[in-house]
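User: Can you write out an input/output pair for a complex, sequences first and structure second?

Assistant: Here is one pair. Inputs:
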Amino acid sequence: MTKKDIFIVSAFKENSVWRQILGICSALAVTNLMMNSLIMGLGVIFCLALSGFTISLIRAWIPRSVRMMVQTLIIAAYVIIVDIFLQANLPLISKQLGPYVGLIITNCILMGRAEAFASQNKPLDSLIDGVGAGAGYTLVLLVISFIRELFGFGSIFGIKIMGSWWTNWSIMVMAPSAFFILAMLIWIINVKFYKAKA
Amino acid sequence: MDISSFVLFWAAIFTSNILLTNFLGMCSYLSVSREMESSFGLGISVLFVLTVTTGLNWLVYRYILVPFDIVYLQYIVFIIVIAAFVQLLELVIERYAPALYYTLGIFLPLITVNCAIFGVSLFMVIRNYNFLQSIAFGAGSGIGWMLAILMLAAIRRKLKEKLVPTGLQGVGISLIITGIMALAFVGFSGIVQVQ
């Protein structure tokens, strides 16, 4: 596989959220505003790419029996970097994201990529795989948050685009809508692109 | 934050359910809810581990991380505490209650990566709970999580004989059911306000 293929496969064909149903927690929790989703997505891309790279780099020296713990600690180290960076530079968003930045550690996507890809492939390939998987994840976040922010607040990235006639749908800001929209998204993608069979 | 532990306990179950309003622990929730028995087993394990680790993490945070000024290490420390506790629990159960080990044993490794456990510890730090509040919040969240997975498992069992659109089968329909459940739980939300 070329580098480009790796990216496309992990970002779209085997997208973590809609194909493997991983990382749903944060995909639902941070998607009420597009800005939060974008920042969260970038954070995940950063952690995925670098933790994949690091794990792949030292994969020959990790004993099999403790590899989960080692992988978790490597991921945690990068998550701490993201968390401190956000607290220092984007304190408001850091406060809104709350515990969900720290929860990147237990995001199944990171563990999944570490196990399935980084522990068996070259460092550079793992880096690209991480960026790909992160980009696919960010894409899902942005689609969900686009719908939720548009209907819930009448805005996109905080910029009002609906006129004064618009009544906000408060349901879109609350939890249930996230479940419905993700379900619809999975439905559409299954039917459109994967030709779900009876 | 001055909210009594008793109120917090009920709030964690109903008004701010860890799964239905905070979306934590979704992965195992979706994958295990196919069967009632395993849902119950996992629910009980989550409840127990959640209650104890929240208490442990509070002690660690208050008496180790804060005095030594290494709060930025909280993520790593919390994860290690949770993993170590689960490992220990596995050993103890295997040694003293083999029958229980066969029913619950397979769920314990799943729990280390369950984000509900880690998430509750983080909420506890962010919201500045005291020890009793933390235990109550942990136990309430555990019961809330168990309630949610049992409800979904029960509905999915009924759903087995029903016709579901092909593209929606499996995860899709589970998410929609969860959405409706969350909608029902929104009804509780006016009673107590926990952030």
